[in-house]
Amino acid sequence: MQWILVGLGNPGSEYVGTRHNVGREMLQHIVHEAGIGEWKVDKKLHAQATKGEIDGKKVLVVLPDTYMNSSGGSLKTLVLSKKQAEQTVVLHDDLDIPLGKIKLSFGSGAGGHKGVESIHKVIKTKDVVRIRIGISPATPKGKLKKPDSADIVDFVLGTFKPSERAKLETAKKNIHDAITLLLSEGRAKAMTEINSR
Known about the structure:
Layout: E1 3-7, H1 22-34, E2 40-42, E3 47-54, E4 57-64, H2 82-86, E5 88-98, E6 102-106, H3 114-123, E7 129-136, H4 152-156, H5 162-185, H6 187-195
Parallel strand pairs: 1-4, 1-5, 5-7
Antiparallel strand pairs: 2-3, 3-4, 6-7
């Protein structure tokens, strides 16, 4: 069975490079690195999609062209069983993780992330793999400095600074490793390895 990889973000050039689009951006990078074919607009999925292989495993890669809060619509006709849900990997930004760090999770709540909430609601299960990509600043000791709730929208829709971009390079490598491990060795091994970094 093929894996479904989903990169969350908002469509449109005005959102390119924003923190909220980091899941979408990272998945585009991985597809490029893997040499997978061109993106095509899939009107049925309301998304850009491409198919190919990563480490010999078949993948369908989906970038929803709906706005973030309606991301689930792109999976409505794709994820129709528990087995398919468990083979779905969602990449998204996460305010509860320091910039440059990532965490894999499975079967957990959305933590207030509207795009993830939309997916859970549409496919009627939380049992998807999530690659949570940190976007919050942190102190040198790793203490999070999350924006105040009143500033969150401006923060997530703001673009990364050059110094923040440098920290994303570590995340990029870890995301690549996470996907490779997930596809080749399974969820448990990937979570143990990646979440201990």
